[in-house]
Structures are given as structure tokens and as C-alpha cells.
Amino acid sequence: MNEHRYRWRNRQLREHVSVMDGHITPTIVLMNATYLNVYMKRWMEAHIWIYDDRIIYVGEELPEENNAIEYVDCSERYLVPGYIEPHSHPFQLYNPHRLAQYASQTGTTTLINDNLVLLFLLETKKAFSLMEDLNDLPVSLYWWSRFDSQSALQEKDALLSDRQVMDWLNHDAVLQGGELTCWPSVLKDDDHVLHWMQEAKRSRKPVEGHFPGASERTLTKMKLLGTDGDHEAMNGKEVWDRLRLGYTVALRYSSIRPDLPKLVQEMKEIGVEVYDRLMFTTDGSTPSFYEQGMIDTCISIALEQGIPEVEAYCMSSYNVAKHFGMEHRIGSIGPGRVAHINFLDAKDQPTPVSVLAKGKWVKDRGENKQVGDEFDWQKHELGPLQLDWELTDKDLQFSLPLGLEMVNDVILKPYPIQTELSGNEVNAEDEAFLMLMDRDGEWKVNSLLKGFTTSLGGLVSSYSNTGDIIVIGKNKEDMRLAFERMKEIGGGIVLSHHGHIIYELPLPIQGMMSDMPMESLIEKAKEYQRIVEEHGFPFGDPVYTLLFLSSTHLPFIRITPKGIMDVKKKEVLFPAIMR
């Protein structure tokens, strides 16, 4: 197994020194390279020696000639460190394996990942075993440790206990605590989460905030409580405020918040001239958003907006590594670093023509060279979803006086239901039945959803923030049909209309993730969006709508495992009903 994520063994370290002494031959020598030295913040020329997954030497010397060495003339290329995604949610229909494969093709060779779905699906030791196997990929995968579930669960302690959180924080592949979607509770009186924040600090790991629209006072208080970074700035002044107070700021360009062009323009107008505490994130965008790339796209936007090229490349690599205390391993082209290197045609063209990841060619002159296409999810007990319960007539009874109205893709507000609900259909134009069903069939929450569709008969999704089942539709028979088909395919998103299945996306990894290549998944996600838009969906990202229906870090009302919840007051307005 590749050991680089945690440490190289003593034997390997001795071998690396022996390469310098000429006793062992480098595996690759990159000759005549013009590369970005992030420490000097300038382009320099050198020969670069690589042995297995590590950069051994960067300088003027060449090793003794040997036929076993792969020599690469880089005189017509510009070399930069592999890009780092500092805030990845690798479960947005895709899975960590497929996302990493795809990201590497445009130069993102390190992803720092949310662990929330692993908390829902696996015991801690099994999650760590999965992470070990994912480490065999050329791409480097690191993780966060969540401190809250991002919803109101019936058994919160079963998901996040002291033992679980500490096991995660103490794991070498876990680089930060957070993100703090529960920050209002921390500000008020949640000493439990505050304790975990302090444990993260004790472990020399940063804590990531989640502070959209936060005032100077709130940002200051959360800094006092131990937060180090935030990715929720929505305008240039919010970037300025965070930088001024000592935060590291991830500038976001995502499927629901494509703010980066505006952020950079407004930052420059305000006078931000130092970029050392800035980085980029795509914040777990849904599949189709990645059609044109990942962090390379962010660099292109930054360059177009006038950020100096050296700074833009540092924001995509070295700045991230420094923030997470990983500068000694990733984020630069220098001795001792992991051999993540992007080869560019020009300094202002950040999408690489070739990519080395852990010293292996994953892309060579435009050709995808990856091997190991499959990953054994069944080995980790993450096979198809198996439900042993039915959707009954009793389940399909709706009588609540309060519904959820969509303000945009992810914001919901309450509204009084005045529609007759005793029939088989919802007749009001933009209202639909809404159900959240326990994955194990033990409880349900029924209401109406306003603003999602004007005509769609039924939608069933096992993809959700909590892993429970979402049912939406204007016709109960279509909803039942979609539910049965979702069960048959082992989990997924299924749409039905007028008695016919009109779309299905199988999610065979516990009903949460696809295992198809990203290119195929992107097309399926685009098809889903097209169909729901044809049935009246008026917003931009209907995948995120499904994910965030239960997410209590967003205003104003949510449908959660505990029931219909007022987020601000943290009150359950109508509790879940046991089946």
C-alpha cells in the first residue's frame, strides 16, 4: 500500500536519500523544466527527479544516465503544483473514487473531503478501512471531522459521540474539524461542540466555519472560540472582513453559489492586495457543474479578473497546504513533496495537458492514462439499498396545515396550506405532496412543497442529507410507482408521470452514490434537470434541492427526521409520525 498520506517508512526515506547518492535510480526525470517555485513566488528552471511517489531533487544536476529512467523534456511546458480542492463534498450523486478520478484530469490531484455521509453509512473502523483503500488511488484524499449532523435526527448521539469525533480527529488523514453549520448553537451554549473544537486545536488542526452573512461581531466571537477558516463570503467586503480578522478564506465557485468572478472583482475594488490567506473551492457542486473542470476553472476566472498568475496558482495549491499544516507533503514542487505536478501549455492556461499524481501519469499529452477503474464498494458493505417495507395508502394521507415554500433552490419558508388534500392529486398549480420517510420504515413526515413542480406526478429519491427517502409528487399513484421502482434498482432517483417511469438514476452505493464514470453521470444529471424543468422547476439546481430539504443550517423551515422544524427557534412544529 502507498504510505505517503500518513508517513513514508524509514526504509523508504533511506531509499530516497540513496537516489541522491546515486545508489538508486530515479523513476522519472523532468528535464529543462520551467516550474513555479511557490516559496520564491517566481518561475525558475531546473531538472526534477522523481522516485516512485516523491519528488527527490529540484536543481541543476542530472542523475547518471540510465535506461531505466523515464526522461521527459519539459522545455515547452510550464510546471505547477497539483491543485488542491480544500472543501469537497464527495457524495453529490458521485462517489469519492469517481470524483477523484475525474478531478485529476484537469489537475486537481488532492481533495479534502467531508465525512458526513460516512458517518451515516459506516461504523468508524469500517469508514477508516474504506479511506485506506481509497488511498491506493493516485489522487490524495484527506478528510474533515464533522461536529454536527446538519439536520435534526431522532438519535443524534448515535451519529456523533465523543468517541467517534475523537477517533476521527486523531486520524492522520483528517486535517480539520468542521464545517460548523451549527455555529449559532456554539455561540449560544453548545459546550459539547466547543469542546470538540478545542480538541481539534489541541491536535494542531484548523476549524472550518460556515458563516453566511455573518456580522463583524459574529466573526469575532467565532474567532475567539477557535475558528480558523470560512468559505461563505458572498461579496468582496465579506472577504475583506474575514481576512482582516485573521481567517483563511476559500473563495467559492459552486453550482448554487457561482460567486468567484464577483468576489474577485469586489476584492480588488476594496483593495485586497495580499493573497496568502486565500484559496479556491467548488464546495461540492453537483455533477454537471464540473463539466468544464474543477480548480483549474477557478484559476482561469481569477486570471481573467486580474489576479497575478503566481498568486492564482499559489491559491490553488501552496496556500491550501499551509492552512492545513501539510506544506511538507503537498502544494509545491520541491524535495520531499508528493509528486503531484501539472504540465501547462502556457502560464495563463491552467488546464493541464499532462498530470503526474503520486508520480504516476494520470494524463499524458491530453490522454487519460488512469488505471484501476473499478472500486469494490461491496467489500466495504456499501452495496445496493435494500428496503423491506411498502408505501401504503395510510402513508399517503396528508393533513398538516403548514407547508414548505421554495424561495430558491435551497431556502424554504412556511406557508399555510389551503388546498384540499383528501383526493389522489394536488390540484393547486405549484403545490405537490411532500414526504420524508425513514430509511428503515419506522417513521414518516408528510406535508406539501410549494414551488418545486407544476405537473410532475411522482419523484422518489434515496439521495438526501440524512439518507432517508424523499417522496414528492402531484399524484399518489405516480409517487407509489416511483417508490417501487426505486426499491427495485437498489436506491436512486426515479421520476414517474401518468403511470410511466420517465427517468431513473440508479445509486447502487447505499442509495446515495452512483458508480458510473463522471462523464456519464454528468449527462444523467443534466437529463434529470431538464425533465424537472419541463415540469415547472423554476430554479437552478434541483439536485441540491433534494439534498438540503432536511438541512437545518439553512432558513427558515425544514422537513427533518424529527418533523417539520422552525430552524431559527429550533422548534419542532409538527413531529414525525411513527408508522
UniProtKB/TrEMBL annotation:
**Top enzyme category:** hydrolase
* The keyword Hydrolase is annotated on this UniProt entry: yes
What catalytic activity is recorded?
adenine + H2O + H(+) = hypoxanthine + NH4(+)
The highest taxon in the source lineage is Bacteria
Entry keywords, A to Z? Hydrolase
Its Enzyme Commission number(s) read: 3.5.4.2
User: Where's the Amidohydrolase-related domain?
Assistant: 78-362
Family annotation (Pfam families): Adenine_deam_C (PF13382), Amidohydro_1 (PF01979)
Q: Which InterPro entries match?
A: Adenine_deam_C, Amidohydro-rel, Metal-dep_hydrolase_composite, Metal_Hydrolase
Q: Which residues form the Adenine deaminase C-terminal domain?
A: 427-570
Q: Which family does it belong to?
A: Belongs to the metallo-dependent hydrolases superfamily. Adenine deaminase family.
Q: Which PANTHER family match?
A: ADENINE DEAMINASE YERA-RELATED, N-ACETYLGLUCOSAMINE-6-PHOSPHATE DEACETYLASE
Q: What is this protein called?
A: adenine deaminase
